[in-house]
Write a structure and sequence with these properties.
alpha+beta, Nucleoside Triphosphate Pyrophosphohydrolase, eight-stranded mixed sheet
Length: 167
């Protein structure tokens, strides 16, 4: 999968640090249902993010994505193509996160989201908005949390690339 960007502390307004990183792989999607995409809104943190999350042991990236889409949107989906990957070096958490992002399409809306305890504490809600509206929303965001700053940069890159791909 094509590397789209490496995001480091300096890219989100913090000084770079040398630390020993643990690696976390994640799967994400720009998930379409007709002409709208799924966005998770962390209402208490005031930022949006794409559906997706960590890849568990003994799970491949596409299986992780299917699980995360079901958990966060209540939908089953079909992967239509690759968007790319982004590597984040979050020094504060000693985390090197590799996010693999895909374009996917809803096959069936089967249930309500089943948010994690953490997602519930963030006030997560699922929104369905046109792609250009998702980009506009995230462009205006100014998250106050360290990881929120990384997420906004990452999601904008994925959304703009998705927009480029579908044109």
């Amino acid at each position: 999968m094509k590397l789209l960007k490496v995001i480091k502390n300096k890219d989100v307004g913090f000084p770079n640090k040398k630390v020993k990183y643990r690696i976390r792989k994640a799967a994400r999607a720009v998930l379409f249902d007709k002409n709208k995409i799924a966005l998770l809104f962390a209402s208490k943190l005031k930022y949006h993010k794409l559906p997706g999350g960590g890849v568990k042991k003994k799970e491949n990236i596409k299986k992780a994505l299917a699980r995360e889409i079901m958990e966060e949107t209540g939908c089953t989906a079909k992967i239509k193509g690759e968007i790319g990957k982004i590597i984040e070096y979050r020094a504060k958490f000693k985390l090197k996160q590799i996010s693999y992002c895909f374009i996917a399409e809803v096959i069936k809306k089967s249930s309500k989201p089943n948010f994690t305890k953490n997602e519930k504490s963030e006030g997560s809600k699922i929104l369905w908005v046109p792609l250009n509206n998702a980009i506009e929303r995230i462009e205006k965001e100014k998250p106050k949390t360290y990881d929120g700053k990384f997420k906004v940069v990452r999601e904008l890159i994925f959304l703009r690339k998705a927009e480029e791909i579908i044109k």
